[in-house]
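step: validate -> pass
step: tokenize input -> pass
step: predict -> running
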Amino acid sequence: MFSRMFSVPVLTLGLIATAMPAFSATLRVAHNLGYGGRESVDPISPVRFFPINQMLYDPLVWPDNNGKPSPALATSWFNSPDFRTWTFTIRKDVRFHNGDAMTARDVAFSLQRVLSPKLASPVRSVLSFIEDVKVIDASTVAVHLKQPHADFPIVLMDYRVRVVSAKSLADNTDAIYDSGIGTGPFKLQNLDPEGTTVLVANLDYWGGKPGVDEVDVIAIPDTDARNQALLAGQIDMSEVTGTEERLFGGTSNFVVQKIPAGAWNPIVMRTDTPPFNDPRVRKALKLLADRKALLRSVLGEENGIVACDEPVWPGDPYFDAEIKCEPDLPMAKKLLSEAGFADGLTLDLYTSSVEPSMIPLAEAYQAQAAQAGVNINVRVVPADGYWTNIWLKPNYPFVVGNWGQRPADQVLNEVFRSNAKWNESAWNRPDFDSLLDEARKSGSFDERKAVYGKAQKVLSEEGGAFVPFFKYETRVYSLDVTHVDAVPDILMRWQNIAKQ
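step: predict -> pass
step: emit ->
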């Protein structure tokens, strides 16, 4: 079932979709206001505005039906024998929303600004091995790496590695990109993260005319409110949990789309903060959990698959299927006793409705932890600003997180490398970082898989992220919306969607 990187049922995932109907309509979708109104149209910002940025900008490469890199703004590429230089041919006749031609200069500029220390983008940790980027001619770019990386094009599929205009920032790689001018299928008309952000179709889009004339992205922080808005016809599409699916499955007014995917909700323990700085405590808090029961109660067993604290999902070719994680309550109690908590342990776990499964997970885990003498106080905080006010803050060392599907190289480097911007568990292990470097250097897939497997085992045994399951995505949309690709949100081709 999970033999490919993104093993999902696919309706449309080609470079250019089939011709869209000539509808004139507005697509209305919601966003969760997770950054409290600070959402940015700079694609590499720590508070990036997703999915707005997916509509405004294009990547160099994006995944094909098998999850392998395929042409987007780059039409082809090749590598040097030592995997340290990668040369990309850039698509011609592509224009930014303001009419300026997109060239190799813009591509080089976009990659270089990812590395800016001043901007401190989270994606910098993923691409920090880039040494320099050279413009060969108007349609050719050479990327030189500090070390070999046989999977480099996969890293460029990152949803934030998008091409922006060098001219608009006067080649200042340290400047914040706030114009919203890209080469994507939609143009920014009005930016209002706390209200309604309006995008209009880019009629000259190189990938074909979008299927709707306008997209309105409406701020609705609360999960229940989003569901009610969908039921009332105030929005056209939303992601729901498997248990919320029943609200829509019994009516003929909606299409329910279930997609195997690698999204995950970790219960994060900061490894630099007591009591989580003790590996025995971290291990105990993992062992006390019955993951199958958590999956069943939070999502429904048909809506996900058990995970063993490794962030690489089963659809990724580097997933390590040998890792096991059966519950062991006696061992959990023993480890807690050895760590000095024989009489019990009390913890505050912070969560929010910013994503539908986050509160149910905290509550289900709370019930299981009590059996091991761990008293968990579930602290539900506002969805508005959860990612800026709670997550990653040292004074909140025990939180529920949320991650979308990512390739192995990206997720291991972005979330667990010692100096990563989004290293939520404050995981700091030079030997672990060395494993990630070693995997990138090998030209052999089997060797890379073995090294990535070691890294996953270390996280499963000792890491600060309790990952109980991978979530399938359940998307609901109204019947008058068509051409919705059956892929995770992070891979969505928004230009394909039409509305009658």
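step: describe -> Confidence is low (pLDDT under 50) at residues 1-23.
step: cleanup -> pass
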